[in-house]
Write a structure and sequence with these properties.
- InterPro entries: ATP-dep_AA_Ligase, ATP-grasp, LAL_C2.
- Keywords: ATP-binding, Ligase, Nucleotide-binding, Signal.
- With 418 residues, the chain is α+β, with helices and mostly antiparallel strands.
- The chain folds into four domains: 102 residues, 3-Layer(aba) Sandwich (Rossmann fold), CATH 3.40.50; 61 residues, ATP-grasp fold, A domain (Dna Ligase, domain 1, 2-Layer Sandwich), CATH 3.30.1490; 128 residues, ATP-grasp fold, B domain (D-amino Acid Aminotransferase, Chain A, domain 1); 79 residues, ATP-grasp fold, B domain (D-amino Acid Aminotransferase, Chain A, domain 1, 2-Layer Sandwich), CATH 3.30.470.
- The chain has 14 helices and 19 strands.
- Helix 5 runs antiparallel to helix 6.
- It is globular.
- The termini are far apart.
Length: 418
């Protein structure tokens, strides 16, 4: 009987997420491994290509981790040889960890995943271990936040305790800014306030092999101007001096092992400051958007999901992933608000030989929104070239060549991040 990979939650009904899941399934199938996708009925209905690519798809929820764990335990008891459990989605990481623990296959301890998904708990654990961290407080209301602001130097960041995609993240410079910041939060529950870190922000991507972190690339980031921090561009590999990259890898490696992560992929955000590396959020998964595509272009021959699966199953593989030999970039287009009536220059973008992927994220007749989160970006262009610098230049040139024509005045270049 073939070993089975249990793919918890599958993909979100978004092109980049579906594309990632298709890559997971293709790289798994190439290894002769059976796949079962478990997720909710609406997601299965919205992602037919995932259902078609998997050997089996079953309706099993993942917001309650026990549901997936119990389902897997029953399948194993009935004779299914589930040898590995994997999840792409942030919100499915706890369910995957609980399921792996329940059936005794490789995985990160559930308590470790719960800790890194709870942003303040992760910060507290890292700070206690001696890693540089911004001070943070869990708040129930504005008064709690004001107390923190009196004790910690500003400015400050207000953010949800458990969210993604820059939703609800904003900068506050005084108590007068708090009402607007709280209004951006996705719900009225508890939230976080933390010290603002003024350094340049990056992320680092990697996988675990034999329990040790192996690094694929450092990613540069660009974001909208404060008070919001929506990501508008990425490039890999970052152009860092070798000693600085080694310092980053040393700090991140120690942090991951201190937190207790040992299996799968990771995506760790950090700042480079005059005082050194300051760690941001830690994720036990690969970065989203089209980052996996950029990595697999920058490192020819890389099958990032396949390497994770090889490690989980103890399959033969090379000693470790190679370093990037090319560069890739991703540019999000954020045109001014208005009712979209046409997009000029898009066909030329898609035909450009350096374009790895180009996608409009808004349809004609829709309202182009103000950019408050990653959901508000209008289009994405992913490029590949001999270096990340050149890939970024091409992405910027192409973004500026696109014109989003609105009903109001037909003005505004697509590359603007305003």
């Amino acid at each position: 009987m073939k070993p089975t990979l249990l793919f918890v939650a599958g993909a979100r009904a978004l092109p980049f997420s579906v594309n990632m899941a298709e890559a997971v399934l293709a790289q798994t199938a190439a290894r002769g491994i059976r796949t079962i996708v478990t997720t909710t009925a609406p997601v299965l209905a919205a992602t037919p290509s995932i259902v078609a690519a998997a050997d089996e798809a079953s309706v099993v929820g993942y917001t309650d981790p026990r549901e997936n764990a119990e389902w897997a335990r029953r399948r194993v008891a009935a004779g299914e040889r589930i040898a590995a459990v994997f999840a792409l989605l942030e919100m499915a990481q706890v369910a995957a960890a609980e399921t792996a623990a329940a059936i005794g296959v490789p995985g990160n301890p559930p308590e470790v995943i719960r800790r890194i998904r709870t942003k303040d708990a992760c910060r507290t654990a890292l700070a206690a271990a001696g890693f540089a961290q911004p001070a943070v407080r869990l708040c129930a209301n504005a008064a709690d936040a004001e107390d923190f602001m009196r004790d910690a130097p500003g400015p400050w960041i207000v953010k949800p305790r458990d969210a993604m995609g820059s939703i609800g993240v904003s900068l506050v410079s005084s108590a007068a800014d708090l009402p607007a910041a709280l209004a951006l939060l996705p719900d009225a529950g508890t939230f976080l306030i933390e010290e603002f870190v003024p350094g340049t922000e990056f992320s680092i991507e990697g996988i675990f092999l034999d329990g040790q972190p192996h690094f694929l690339a450092v990613t540069t980031k660009e974001k909208t101007s404060p008070p919001l921090f929506v990501e508008t561009a990425h490039a890999v590999p970052a152009d860092l001096p070798e000693p600085q990259r080694e310092e980053v890898e040393e700090v991140v490696s120690a942090a991951l092992l201190t937190l207790g992560l040992r299996v799968g992929a990771f995506h760790v955000e950090f700042w480079l400051t005059p005082g050194g590396v300051v760690l941001g959020e830690v994720h036990g998964r690969l970065g989203g958007d089209w980052l996996y595509l950029m990595l697999e272009y920058a490192i020819p021959g890389l099958e990032v999901f396949g390497l994770v699966i090889d490690d989980m199953l103890g399959l033969p593989r090379a000693p470790g992933p190679p370093r990037p030999t090319r560069g890739a970039a991703m540019r999000f287009l954020t045109p001014p608000p208005g009712t979209l009536v046409a997009v000029e220059g898009w066909d030329e973008v898609r035909a450009h030989p350096a374009v790895l992927h180009a996608e409009l994220l808004i349809s004609h007749g829709a309202e182009i929104p103000l950019v408050h989160s990653s959901r508000d970006r209008a289009a994405v262009i992913v490029t590949g070239a001999e270096t990340s610098t050149r890939a970024r230049e091409i992405a910027e040139e192409l973004a500026l060549s696109v014109r989003f024509v609105t009903a109001a005045d037909g003005a505004g270049p697509g590359g603007s991040a305003s």
